[in-house]
Design brief:
The complex is a heterodimer of chains A (326) and B (380). Chain A contains 13 helices and 14 strands. With 326 residues, chain A is of the alpha/beta class. In chain A, helix 11 links the parallel strand 13 and strand 14. Chain B has two domains: 338 residues, Rossmann fold, CATH 3.40.50; 33 residues. Chain B has 13 helices and nine strands. In chain B, helix 1 packs across helix 2, helix 1 packs antiparallel against helix 11 and helix 2 runs parallel beside helix 9. The mean pLDDT of chain B is 95. Classes of the chains: A alpha/beta (326), B alpha/beta (380). Chain B: One of its GO terms (biological process) is branched-chain amino acid catabolic process.
Amino acid sequence: MTTMTYREAMREAIRQAMRADDRVFLMGEDVGRYGGCFGVSLGLLEEFGPDRIRDTPLSESAFVGAGIGAALGGLRPIVEIMTVNFSLLALDQILNNAATLRHMSGGQFGVPLVIRMTTGGGRQLAAQHSHSLEVWYAHIPGLRVVAPATVADARGMLATALADPDPVIVFEHGGLYNVSGEVPDPSPADLDRAAVRRPGRDVTLIGYGGTVPTALAAADLLAADGVDAEVIDLRTLRPLDDATLVASVSRTHHAVVVDEGWRTGSLAGEISARITEQAFYELDAPVGRVCSAEVPMPYAAQLEQAALPQPAAVRAAARQLVGVDG
Amino acid sequence: MAKGDLETVGADAPAGGYVQLLTPDGDRVERVTGPDGTEYSVDFTDAEYRTLYRDLVTVRRLDAEATALQRQGELGIWASLLGQEAAQVGAGRAMRPQDMAFPTYREHGVLYTRGIDPIMPFGLFRGVNQGGWDPQEYKFNQYTIVIGAQTLHATGYAMGITMDGKTGSADGEAVIAFFGDGATSQGDVNEAFVWSGVYHAPIVFFCQNNQYAISEPLERQTRIPLYRRSSGFGFPGVRVDGNDVLATFAVTRAALDNARQGQGPTLIEAYTYRMGAHTSSDDPTRYRIASEVESWKVKDPISRLKAFLEKQQVGDAAFFAEVDEQAKAEAIALRERVLELQDPDPVTMFDHVYPHGSPEVDAQREAFQRYQATFEGSAH
């Protein structure tokens, strides 16, 4: 059992993957000498050298496209994109190329590429660096999309992602990097199942990435209200683990999805639809959604906090569903 | 010597030379012939020299005030222009009133030369508003955060003024797009070069090569001097000593005048150095060595102009002291105004999603107001 931060867990995962397999390398902006804009790769340049820890020219489309080429040639690239907003410059490479080449080649080859990117708000980085666009990628067949919410998953998911024969997008919420936690077992994480982070009987709170701590904090508030909340961490956003969701809702009969994306066209909407399709008669109330306000993410701290899903809002939504507020 | 290099390279110039009219010691170079035969020189009155000096000192002092305010938690973030004052003031003063600028988030010096109240970027970085200057009134577009995106906006604007018949004469209009060395690797910037080239757009691409893209040195963006990139796109490029306000003025003025007269785009590489961090969020000691920073201190844009003014007896100790005092007073007054800027009400986040509202946003605003009201009277 080791205690470390989420950031250290990601770094440790990269380090172990690179030690274990010469084909693995990391590239992106500022990943080398600077150690990454969020400090994930600090010290890796010193250990692995500039061929395997590559500072790239400022071109997201180029370093994702080059990652595809390297993967096609047999390497196992890890590409770091500074934020999900910047990944839009590489969207053509990700959607029209990485995600489709297995299909377009008639199954001759896939693209074993891992793309890591920071997502989410709460750090005063304004409307061009802070959005939660996970659902854009979760929409795309051909990709696997994961969102480690715990330190253990930050440590364990990368190895599984690198072993995947297809492109995997790893979303790291910027608010999680400094969180400390235990890594009970550094072996590769199973990506196929959502996890129950807190068992409860009265309402299921569903989150992923940065909203898992929000849901857990809301569960604490609800406990004080006498409401016993279960918290589910989706872990993998594509494909979604419907079975875990349905099993939980079948016990609690109430669900609130907590999603930092915008509500319209959100993952929260997709999850709500699946619960309705598969567990409609288990529900005692409509599925609730607590999402970011549908505005460009404000830069001002107090506006940004008001725009993001907060534990108090999750609590209010859950109280209303279970009828605490009449 | 490669095609495009300058025969007279300038003191401390990188390989290939640059246009320099004022050496780091404050000695005047009368004129420099550019790679395409253009003669670069300036013909300022004593009062104009003194104004340029005052500009440089003032923008540096205001920038220092912003850095201090950020460190005190009064601004969320700040992108300092320290070291790039001459590049910005030279380019800004070279613009004619009708010329349009498309800046990045670091162009506080250009903003100042356009006559915009310097509190405006402070309000932006404090998070109380979005800056608020009128881009049309001041011919200075909003700060662009996305790296290189504004070069395409500038290209489109430049094509537009040609369609409006506003180019082709000595009093025509021109556009200047500001960006950095890192941006030259972005697709947007290269696409802007292609478009401006084929449409012969009245635009000046003004690249402040401050040697770093956050932590990444110039060698990660290019194998050749940046100004030479333009030749592949079919328009001229010239490198200027970006720490020399006179040369920057002369080169930018000539390029803008060419553009307004219908002679198409120019790429200017203003060779300079970012003396501070990329923004207040990073620590440059992690990626560059102190001796490199020291080597640029002797090329300081302000001290060389001060030395020149002293040698020419255009400025004396009393003048320099008065400029310092005025800049300080301006900075203190600005600080006081900044501290009085009120935080916006959170509900204002719904204000500018659509100009006339929308059912979705309006419903959210109402729900938010009801939710906010539940906290009234509580400590939260």
